[in-house]
Amino acid sequence: MALLNVVQLTDNIAYIIGILFLAVVINICWQIVQLSIKKRQDDISLKDFSGPKPHWLMGNLKDTTVDTMLERQTEWAKIYGGAHKILVGPWMSVLRLAMPDTLQKVISTAEPKDPMTYNFIKPWIGDGLLISGGKKWFRNRRLLTPAFHFDILKPYVRIFSQSSIIMVEKWKQLIGSDGVRSIDMFEHVSLHTLDSILKCAFGYESNCQQDGRNNPYIKYIYELSELVTQRFRFPPYHSDLIYYLSPAGYRFRRATRFARAFTQDVVRKRREHLKNKQDANENGVKRKYLDFLDILLVTKDEDGNGLSDQEIQDEVDTFMFEGHDTTASGISWCLYNLANNPECQDKCRQEAYEVIGDREHFSWEDMPKLNYIHMCIKESLRTHPPVANIVRKTTKPVTFPDGRKAPEDTRMGLGIYAVHHNPAVWPDPEKYDPERFSPDNSKNRPPHAYIPFSAGPRNCIGQNFAMNEMKTCIANVVRNFKLEVDTTKRVSKLPEIILRSKGGLWLNVTPV
Description:
Blueprint: H1 2-45, H2 69-80, E1 83-88, E2 92-97, H3 100-107, H4 115-118, H5 122-125, H6 134-144, H7 150-153, H8 156-175, E3 181-184, H9 185-202, H10 208-211, H11 216-233, H12 240-245, H13 247-275, H14 292-298, H15 309-340, H16 342-356, H17 371-383, E4 389-393, E5 398-399, E6 405-406, E7 411-415, H18 416-420, H19 463-478, E8 481-485, E9 493-495, E10 499-501, E11 506-511
Parallel strand pairs: 2-7
Antiparallel strand pairs: 1-2, 3-11, 4-7, 5-6, 8-11, 9-10
Helix pairs in contact: 8-9, 8-19, 9-15, 11-13, 13-15, 15-17, 15-19, 16-17
């Protein structure tokens, strides 16, 4: 009898497994059918747009690696023009735009981000301003705009300066009596920007710069960026079901849980402070300014409705991602460019000396005076934009300046890196030349030739926050150190979600 029960149980389990397997197969087949139909529609509607010949399975991904992707995109723009078609995997057609006049047709609108592409990071940063669309995006953009008013940003500059001085002192300790030390910019600058954003946006003292390179939040952010890039480049992982069952999917869920738990803890602590009517941080230090989280928790729309708990969490995760990782990339690459161009570095150092005098910290009033440093940052954001590509999905037909048309429901790849390196727009584009951004040289440039913060209604809401942090950090670094490229370590651009360098970005740092 017991044996019969075991046999029946085994049969039942086998039956359930068989049903589940059949459901998985049907789900995958249905997705393939839908993708094939969309691919056929795109072939017809985008027939007027040329592009590189795709591989039957990998599409145009076969022609690129992570190491060569940016250069290949720039090359394709030269060969096939400012609007050309590529294929990602066997089914996903993308119309890539790499000229200011073609980009303008999409980037100047509020067209939403492509759901399929950005759904890869949605479990991580939620449905915040970066991803959301429609009425939700319009409402929340309006509610969050006051958080980036100049009056809110003013006290942040001193925090940026204090955080960057912590990094400067840390470098001096690392250098010691040797006089020079090779330091990975991304490692240290990421800790600095994390420290700054936690203090500015959430009034949170993390001491993360003192904790050092093993900070778990940064470790998981790096892992998430790598996993999302791998998923995009491996077509089978575009299926949510396949990705969920994969080892990479497991790693992604684990990293996401940690990253969101970190920010949830930040929000929880602030709620407790507000509940107790406290205006100090968790260390008891009284704050004299409003921060991003204050505004999130109290803002209300015209109907008297505030943001839901989920919306607050999503906006916090979005701002943590956009305000920490992208700024770290911008600062790191600018320091690299200054190390490669010592004459520019010397000018920045002299300007920093003249502006700060014998004071310890930079102030809000100093920001407009750092003109040359500002030009150097802008040129670095051109040569090394932190976000190299954006993908939108049109909700209405688009007609380009040359008369060609793309229908609604078309994926548009906005090639920020490609347009920044297009020789038809930027003479000698590989050359680092801050004078491109002098007032005289900026006059006749097409309005969408330079878009490191995107443009139009969906531009980066925190770009003034980021620019002030970059100016303050770079000014404090160059007035304390001479920077040179460590020629023993290769610099290789790594375009994940954020533009990094494979193996770090190492500079020889010598105290001035």
